[in-house]
């Protein structure tokens, strides 16, 4: 059985969208060291996206390239978790403007990297050897992202009254989006059947343990979930993704066929 | 990135004359070390004016690196390929790293990063005026790498031999990365020049806007440069503004030819007798006007730095509060 391309796109889109978001802090971080740390996270994620798109393009054949996949697909074709496309602030509609909130950034990076350390770890045994190699590299990077975001989560939660309130608000805002991790999309189902992917559902206890442990150390509470489960990974996104992609893809699309 | 005329005066260096200058053994030792082209290290005695000049110069340089993240950062989200996006993020990140080494180098002179940032945010301390111009098309990123980083290298390579040890050592590392940036910028432009007519037009447009500003980066003509003589004496400045500018022009003209762009100066031509390129008049009135805060982006650049700092206050406070709590917990456990 061959590697389901949609699954590779899911992983790649996750990485490029979160990489794009993290890079937004470049020049605006709370302290110079954090500008650099988030640039690093972003670089790692974009690097992961490139390798995954390249593998997908290779399997697709024809004139597919990493940049065609990143720049010339529309929002409904993107397969990333909705969590990753959200702006760095609380719940607001797509065309609302607000200041970036570092707590939102950190909590999101934490929730995602706490999942991905387990995903990449499992994917090292993927039946697709290219994906297994990408996973090994990504695991190292993601362990650093987890470390970085967890440290800040704890500092914020157990810092000042204000930082605690902001971190708790970000947890309350973002935690519901993680429910999407535990549903199974057709692409994931096919990849698991082909032994290309691992079953994410099986990672839930390990993720829960990581999250609960960090929240406890940060003196934060985990909200109960009830409600809508997002479906970004099947192409049904929030209002925010088309803005993100509009900005990211605009220049490339204004010059189709150009080489950069 | 950068350092221009690091002898652009700002308010921080005033009242030097008040410092007493009674000759002493330690002063003689300092002078002797400078004369022998030796290095001054943080623990060494140094004249107050030397210390202040260095703090001013190194902090201006550090501020330039940090403010310089903004014009290029402007294109990260819109980079037209993932490869170029990654290269640009890495470049802007390098500039942040240069800022960090330089703040650290200046801190060895007894001024804290907070004090230096306060100087920047209040508008008292200057930064390279090249960053007060907007980046209007994607080719600006390549042109900044090629010309702005290129000019910075010309300015900074001599500083690798600067008399102050920590600054000289920081410059060695910075210069390596700046030349990497310059090559990457130039390479990106080569690719664009081999591309479509629109891409070539973008490159030419960016060169037209940045060429003269880059020449001004070397600072005012030697005749009008009040700090240069003392800087030369102290081994803080090694080559004059005009000599560096000429060197930059001579190196850049052939690169522009290979690239296939026109440098926007009708007076630019080889002078056989001088063995250098002649060039036209730099608009110094415009330069000074921009240095004084009236360029196209001064207000946006500074306000953005101030906003990032203010918005980040709660994050820095959280880190401090947490560190304090951890310390208290450790003390309690030990007791
Ligand atoms: Fe730099
Ligand atoms: Fe640079």
UniProtKB/TrEMBL annotation, chain A:
Pfam annotation, one family: PaaA_PaaC
GO biological process: phenylacetate catabolic process
Coiled coil spans: none
GO CC terms in record: cytosol
Superkingdom of the source species: Bacteria
InterPro entries: Aromatic_CoA_ox/epox, Ferritin-like, Ferritin-like_SF, PaaA_PaaC, PaaC
PANTHER family reported for this sequence: 1,2-PHENYLACETYL-COA EPOXIDASE, SUBUNIT C, PHENYLACETIC ACID DEGRADATION PROTEIN PAA
Protein name as annotated: Phenylacetate-CoA oxygenase subunit PaaI
Organism field: Thauera phenylacetica B4P
TrEMBL record, chain B:
Gene Ontology terms describing biological process: phenylacetate catabolic process
Protein name as annotated: Phenylacetate-CoA oxygenase subunit PaaA
Annotated Pfam families: PaaA_PaaC
InterPro entries the record matches: Aromatic_CoA_ox/epox (IPR052703), Ferritin-like (IPR012347), Ferritin-like_SF (IPR009078), PaaA (IPR011881), PaaA_PaaC (IPR007814)
Gene Ontology terms: cellular component: cytosol
PANTHER family linked to this entry: 1,2-PHENYLACETYL-COA EPOXIDASE, SUBUNIT A, PHENYLACETIC ACID DEGRADATION PROTEIN PAA
Organism annotation: Thauera phenylacetica B4P
GO molecular function: phenylacetyl-CoA 1,2-epoxidase activity
